[in-house]
Request: fold
Amino acid sequence: MRHFRAATPALLATGALVLTACSTVGGGDGDSGTTKDGEPTRVVLVTHESFVLPEDLQAEFEQQSGYELVVRASGDAGALTNKLVLTKGDPLGDVTFGIDNTFASRALDEGVLAPYDATLPEGAEQYRLPGDDDHALTPVDNASVCVNVDDTWFAAHDQEPPSSLDDLADPAYRDLFVAPGAATSSPGMAFLLATIAEYGDDWPDYWERLMANGAKLTEGWSDAYQVDFTQGGGQGKRPVVLSYDSSPAFTIADDGTSTTSALLDTCFRQVEYAGVLEGAENPDGAEALVDFLLTPEVQAALPESMYVFPVDAGVELPEEWAQFARQPADPLEVDPAEIAANRDDWLREWSDITSR
Amino acid sequence: MRRTLTLVGLAAVPLAVLGVFFVLPVAGMISEGFYVDGQLDVGAVVEVLTRPRTVRVVWFTVWSALAGTALSLLLGVPAAHLLHRRRFPGRSALRAALLVPFVLPTVVVGVAFRELIGEAGPLGFLGFDGSAAAIVAGLAFFNVAVVIRAVGAAWESLDPRPAEAAAALGAGPAHVFRTVTLPALRPAIVSAASVVFLFCATAFGVVLTLGGLRYSSVETEIYLLTTNLLDLQAAAALSIVQLLAIVALLAITSRLRAVADPTLARTTARPPRIGRGDWPSVAATALVLLLVGLPVTALVVGSLHAGGGWSLDNYRALTTEGSRQALLVPATTALVTSLRTAVDATWMSLTLGVLVAVVVSRRSHSRTERRARGLLDGLFMLPLGVSAVTLGFGFLITLDEPPLDLRDNPLLVPIAQALVALPLVVRTLAPALGGIDDRQRQAAASLGAGPVRTFATVDLPVLWKPLLAAAGFAFAVSLGEFGATSFLAREENPTLPIVIFHLIGHPGAMNYGMALAASVVLAATTAVVMLAVERLRVPSLGAL
Reply:
């Protein structure tokens, strides 16, 4: 008891000090986002957690446009889309980035976006969302989900690597393939769509063959690539993995060549879009940001900051990308409206097949 | 009358906070599911409950959580005996270290586990990868610390004399344990089991990562339905199942937890050294160490690998922004953000926790009053059992208009974390307060002390140590919290678990190594905080 009393003032003082020094309370700037005349002073970007804009580019945008840029990043592309749908009419910000072509139809159908016809850079027209006639979504980047193979493994085993989706179900490649699941991962969903594009209504049959051939499913990309893939961070055992067309640029050996390659006939292309939110407080700022994401500076920074390809055909790619990251000329495609209509049924059927 | 008013006044603040930041958002999300195009449609929600898939998911959740709880108890109770009733060198360091898993982000633990039990791992021959057994082991990995701490604290303050008397009368060790020790520990064991069950039943990453997608729990299903399929009816149905299950669980445990005389018999006797008869607790502790130690060792080893050899490069890189600007902020900055957020979450949950604990622990004067206290106690357990996704989306759709225009408030993250930590805080403080003989307060009052003075001289000295223990818990919960945090809007200040998730999700060997190194830093930080708390609370009273 006496001990307690003696220590109390000192501890309370320390506690108070720690609280005031470390707390985040009062850390906010209390900015309401408008000037005295009600003119907006900032633009709020709502995006997913993979969004990264290098600091110098963010400063450049703020200087050019005169608006402070506030980035609110959380969740994945699906969570982002659903958040925007649920807060329709009272949007979370002014502009969004990160809705992809597998979720885009839902966002369009629900009317969460306002039309804005941005001037696209050279070569970007091909990435427009089919059916988006009002130009509510502006393509910013793209990346294809492709099956990747460890070439060194196949060389060491004196075996020809697989080259098509069909090969993955071939007993010669038994127990070699690992992929993230469609229900829990966005590349996993893209792979399911690739198989639907390839096999049409027979896709459940293909998946049954694939699973019977020892395909392994994981929760997310990092599990499949980092743990199970032979060229990942850990000591994996499977030389065939579902990843991206850009992945070979990250597995460069000491001799300067890549140890992996992407199978370009197995790819599904994901395009990420930006758009002005319906009911935005600062539509001018929102449009300025969409334009800014299309500038050569931002487009050139995309590969290194977000691991995706720019839509601008004119910008130069980083050296490893130019050398080793080959893009599919003719990726597998599924109509966005069809995805929106069938996502639920497809995922349920897929879950049934893969959890047997 | 005045007494009742005081207690109601004390309860008002925590109730208001719970109302705004929990009841309102969750109710908002559930009603989204019930109203389709503005029309109330109960039938559709009921229909979801009869789907075979729903039944399968609920069944899996119940049995896996039961198995996880059972394994945690089986390992945790004997380990608590060794770590809290026996004396040996390095004891407090070991206790602190065992709490580490509690804060590790599941995504990293998943990777660490799978490095061990995966096809290529040293334990791959067991064929555990993607099995329900792996899920149960993972659940125990995360929760065994809760059992050790809660049961250990109760055990420490147990009067050893009845057991000694029984032994002197000829009862064997097993008999003594069954007839004397176990009944005395029952409240603590039941409390710990109920909290662990809730943690297991709402586990998310473990089920998906270690189960190889073959298993779905209610929590993973709500996530899929809400963030991917936007099937809010089905999500609402499952949220209601979750809520009902928690209410049932609380009703059962409050009966099992009740003891005739809650007044704690406190002892400060110096614990004996390990003896020959302690082999069961030694064996259980060794198993716990193995379960917790192996994945953590895998993490540390992985973090020290860079560029094909042993090096500290991964740790050095934590002060940069990743090999390819993968991060907006260096991991060190994120650690500072994490610590600051944790300070906020800690004081919030302690403030609310003390108020709730005072209200629920005072002796009731009537049956109704006791009921009301029981309800209040249960109400604050709810945040443990509701999906972070439901809460996160609920924040966005309900806290969007003045005077509650809070969805962009930076304090939302610590508030959400404080709510998650609150049940642990209340469960730590309430038994200590309940153990105070009310006659002490009456004596203080009759000597002229006001309510505040009485609290300061009677309650606070007893509460002091459990308060520190609770602070440690709250701090650890906040440091490791990922679900709600990743979901809430954050401006450019990600916490360390978010940064780790980001790092591990991108290609490049450096990012992988950095993610492991950052996890080790997070674990070490937690262990240091726990060790500090451990040093401060000498004769512990805190029990869940």
